[in-house]
Every structure is written in structure tokens, then in C-alpha cells.
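pls design
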């Protein structure tokens, strides 16, 4: 299962970078968003136990689980004119968890257990690659990138 998840993550990041280079001359920016642990509605099913959630929160530098609006705010920004020079990036919306893990490994600490890394990887979800473009009149429109390149 992990191999498929890792391959999918790498493919999305690579696709965003490749499309960013190919579509930049047309004024199109392409980025991907990588949310970390994200809270669903209170009545929703969770694959993690309460203790696993508490353990996850303890590892997040911001000390909380993300909410859907955290990723949505980033996507809204990426679709705005203010993000017109950002392209080919994978942006993690995870409260600093990715950075904390990198610092943890850089400090020479031992590797976390397979169960710990598996728990983190299962919760990472990638949103569709976001694109934005300018038409002939300079007006900006936005769309989620699909299998066909924007015209």
C-alpha cells in the first residue's frame, strides 16, 4: 500500500513541475497542495483511534489538526493574481509537520517506527493540481486542472 501512495505522491509532484514548465509561456501557473492531517466533520468515520490522533497532534508544531479551510485558503490564494509568479511548487499545509520531520531526521534522531510513518502517510491527501490562466483581455480565470490542458 505504501508503494502505491509514494508513487502517486511523486507522480503528482512531478506532473505539477512538468506542466508548470510547459504552460508557463502561456501564462499558466501549476502547483499542487499537500494537506496533512485534516479534521473532518465530528460525525465522520476516522481510520485512526483517539490515541493515534492525540499522538499525531503532539508531533505537529502548530499543535492542532488542520481544517478544510486551511487548504482552501491556500488554493484561493494560488488562484488569485497575487500568486501569479508561483508555479511548479508542492505546498504542504500541515502545521509544520513536514518541516519538523525533516529537522527530526537532520538532528540524527532514530527513524520513527513503520507504524508511525505509515499513520502519517495514510492521512496525507493531495488535491488536484491547480492551474490559473489569463485570457487575451488579461482577465484571470481559474480551474482545477483536469486531463486536458486549459485552452
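designed seq:
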Amino acid at each position: 500500500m505504501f508503494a502505491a501512495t509514494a508513487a502517486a505522491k511523486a507522480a503528482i509532484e512531478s506532473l505539477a513541475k512538468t506542466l508548470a514548465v510547459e504552460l508557463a509561456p502561456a501564462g499558466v501557473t501549476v502547483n499542487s497542495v499537500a494537506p496533512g492531517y485534516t479534521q473532518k466533520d465530528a460525525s465522520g468515520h476516522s481510520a485512526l483511534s483517539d490515541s493515534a490522533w492525540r499522538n499525531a497532534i503532539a508531533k505537529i508544531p502548530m499543535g492542532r489538526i488542520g481544517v478544510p479551510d486551511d487548504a482552501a485558503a491556500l488554493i484561493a490564494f494560488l488562484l488569485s493574481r497575487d500568486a501569479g509568479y508561483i508555479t511548479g511548487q508542492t505546498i504542504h499545509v500541515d502545521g509544520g509537520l513536514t518541516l519538523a520531520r525533516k529537522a527530526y531526521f537532520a538532528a540524527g534522531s532514530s527513524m520513527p517506527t513503520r507504524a508511525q510513518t505509515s499513520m502519517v502517510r495514510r492521512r496525507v491527501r493531495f488535491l488536484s493540481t491547480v492551474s490559473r490562466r489569463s485570457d487575451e483581455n488579461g482577465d484571470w480565470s481559474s480551474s482545477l486542472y483536469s486531463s486536458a490542458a486549459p485552452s
